[in-house]
Amino acid sequence: MSSVSYIDATLRDLATYPWGSEISADDLATAAGALSRVGAAALEAVDPRMARASMELRTESPWDRLRAVVRHAGSTPVGVVVHGRMLWTDHPVAQDVILRFAQAVAECGARRLRLLDPLNSADGLRGPAEAASQHGLAVIPSIVAGPAPDSGDARWREEAAALGALPGATAICVSDGGGHLSPTHLGEFVQMVREASGLPVEVLIQAPGGLAPSLSKAGVEAGATAVYAAAGPVAMTSARPSAETVRAALVGSGNELSVDRANLYDAARIIAPMLASDRVTQAAAAVYGPVVPLPPDLEAGIISKLGRLGMSRKLLEVADEARAIAAEVGAATLAYPLGDAIVAQAAQHVIDETRYQDLETDLAHLVAGRFGALRGPVDPVVTAAAAKADVDDAPAEVTLASLQPDGGASEEDLVLMAQFPEDAERLMARRRSLRTERDEEGAPAISRVMLAELVQAVEASTESEISVEVSGARVTVRRAAPAVTGTGDVADGGGAGADDGLHRVNSPMVGTFYRAPSPEADPFVKEGQRVEAGQVLCLIEAMKLFNEITSDVAGVVRAINIENGTGVEFGEALFLIETA
C-alpha cells in the first residue's frame, strides 16, 4: 500500500476574499489547532486572496495571521502561496522586497513557499525561489493547467522542466483550478510533469460538479505523491476535494491517504460554523448548473451576473468564450489576476454579442508584456483592441528604499506597504492609535481594568454603547447582538429593537450595495413590501463578484438604510424587517 500525503488548504479557503471579512485571527488559530491533528503533511495558511481580505476588509496584518496559525499548528509545517514577483498583490515588486518577504515568512515560522505565475514563467518565479531557498524555505513551483494550449502541447513539457530546475525546488505542484483537464488527461499530464521536472508531483484541484475527488484520484494513480484537500464544509464552498472523499476514492486502488479520520471529522465540526451562510448558499447554487471549466469563485460571479440579466443559460457560452480568449491573448492561464480579466471579458462578449469593443486593463497589460513573455501568439484583433485601450505607463518597481513611511514602521510593515500601500498606511495608523502609556510617557494606559469597568458601565445602564479616548486611542464598548451571520435582531438601544418586532439584515462583507439587478430594473424590494424567507433583498459587489443578500425571515420591509450604489462595511445594517 502506497501512502499519499495530504496538504490541507482549509485555512486559505476559509478566509479568502471577500469572505475573509468574517474570519478573525483567533478563528484561524482555532482552525489550525484542530487541523494540526489530522495528519496533514502541511497546512497552507496565506495566499494572495486571503492576504487581500486581511488587509482590505479587516485592516489586519497577514503576518499576524500567519503567526497565529504557526503557533497552533504544532509540528505540522505551514505554507504560504505567492504569485511570482507580485507576491500577494497585483503588481511586481523589486527583488529587495522579495528577499525581505521570504525572510518574514521564515521568521513567522512557515516552512514552505509555493510559487505560481499566470504564464507559468520560470523566469518570473526565479527571484522568489532564490529568496525562499536563501532563507531555508522549501520551494514548490506550480504549473498551472489552463484552457490553452492543449494538454498535449510540447510547451507544457518545456515549462515543467524549467520550473523543476528552479533553486531549492523540492516538489512541483500541478494546479488545475478550473477543472480544465479530464481525469484521463490529468493522469497523462501528471506523468509528463513528473518525467520532465524530475521532482515529486503534488496535485491541486478545484473542479465543479463533484469532479474534484475523481481528478485527485487520477493524479495519484498517475504517480502524484500528495493531494491538496480541505475539511468537509470548506471543501464544498471552494469546489475542492474534501480529505474524506479523497480517502474514500482511493480505497482499493493500492494507495492510501495519510489522514486521521476521527480528528478530521472533529476539525470539520469545529470549522463549519465559521462559514458564512450566504457563502454556503452560493456554493450550493453552483451545483445545480452545468459543469464548466472555470475557477469556482469566478463562476459564482458570472452565474450571479447572468442571472440578473435573465441570461443564465449563457453560462456555457461564457466558458467557451473564456477558453477562446485565453488562447487569443497569448495562451494565458486563468490564474489570478489574468483569470478575472479573461472571464470578465468573455462575459462582456456574450452579453453584448460582439467581441473586443473594449479590452480589460489587465489583458492590455498582458499584451504589452507587463506580466512577462507570452506563451503564444496574440490574435491581431486583440492587438488592435490593446492599442486602443487607455493604459497607463508601466509603474516603476517598488523597492524598500523608495518607501517613505511614518515613524515606527517595521520591515514587515514595509513589505506590506510595497504591496498594499493604502491598506498598509491604514494598518499602521490604526496601530499607532492603540498605543498606550508605554509609548507616551505620562499618558494613561487602556488597561484590562478600564475595559472591565466600561463593560460593567454598559451592562448597568440603558445606553447601547460607551466610548472613551485615551492618548489618541478610541475604545468603544457596545452591547452584543445575537451572534448570527448576515442578519440579526437590532440590539441598539437608539434604534428599533427585537422587542419592536424588527429584524436587522446586516452586510456579510465589505462592498458596494445595489438595490436592483441592473440600472434599468426595478428594485428587489421596496419599503412597505412583504418579503419571504430566502427572498433576495439586494446585491453586494465585491471584487467583481455580485453576491445576493437574502432575508432569513418573513415580514414587511420597514427601512432600507443604504443608498443605491454606495459602499457598505461588514456588519452594517442594510434593512429592517417587521416580523410580527
Helices, strands, pairings?
Elements: E1 2-8, H1 10-14, H2 25-35, E2 42-46, H3 48-58, H4 62-72, E3 78-82, H5 95-107, E4 112-115, H6 122-134, E5 138-144, H7 154-164, E6 172-176, H8 183-197, E7 201-205, H9 212-221, E8 226-229, H10 232-238, H11 243-250, E9 255-257, H12 261-271, H13 277-287, H14 296-308, H15 315-328, H16 338-352, H17 361-367, H18 380-388, H19 411-419, H20 421-433, H21 448-460, E10 465-470, E11 473-478, E12 487-489, E13 502-506, E14 511-514, E15 530-531, E16 536-542, E17 545-550, E18 555-560, E19 567-568, E20 573-578
Parallel strand pairs: 1-2, 1-8, 1-9, 2-3, 3-4, 4-5, 5-6, 6-7, 7-8
Antiparallel strand pairs: 10-11, 12-13, 13-20, 14-16, 14-19, 15-18, 16-17, 18-20
Helix pairs in contact: 2-4, 2-12, 5-6, 5-19, 7-8, 8-9, 9-11, 10-13, 15-16, 17-18, 19-20
Could you name the key traits of this structure?
580 residues; alpha/beta; TIM Barrel; Cyclin A, domain 1; OB fold (Dihydrolipoamide Acetyltransferase, E2P); 3 domains; eight-stranded parallel beta barrel; five-stranded antiparallel β-sheet; 21 helices; 20 strands; globular
